[in-house]
Specification:
single chain; mainly beta; three-stranded antiparallel beta sheet; 3% helix
């Protein structure tokens, strides 16, 4: 469920914030029940994450939004990896989807982020909640 927009008046009206994260699992499936979110699971927080193909993490929101205003990523204990958004501000694919990419910073090449007990990828998506995206 998105946060109330009252907290984000500086971003303007009609902006919702969805904050979430997931534990990368190398080449394996992301477990959306074990990940960090305010509501216990990613699905309960309003999103799920799927890894496909190498280093690509597709975040699908349960609620449709007209567009993405801004996307911030953060990481914890990724070791030799980094994460960056590949989606840019504008309309979302199907109104629900944006993409993050894992990379090897030494080469700049897409890479799967290996699993580790305390490894975590997070994001903050600022989303237009009403009207078209202009």
């Amino acid at each position: 469920m998105p946060f109330p927009t009252e907290f984000f008046r500086t971003f303007g009206k009609n902006i919702d914030l969805v904050v979430g994260g997931f534990k990368p699992n190398g080449t394996g499936v992301i477990d959306n029940t074990l990940n960090f979110s305010l509501n216990g699971t990613n699905a309960a927080a309003g999103f799920t994450v799927v890894r496909s193909p190498t280093g690509i993490y597709t975040v699908t929101l349960t609620q449709e939004y007209p567009g993405l205003a801004a996307l911030i990523t953060f990481e914890y204990n990724l070791g030799a990896f980094e994460i960056e958004p590949t989606s840019v501000p504008g309309p979302l694919t199907n109104g629900k989807t944006f993409v993050l990419q894992g990379k090897d910073p030494a080469t700049g090449v897409a890479a799967d982020i290996t699993a580790a007990a305390n490894r975590f990828v997070g994001f903050a998506a600022f989303l237009k909640s009403k009207g078209g995206f202009t």
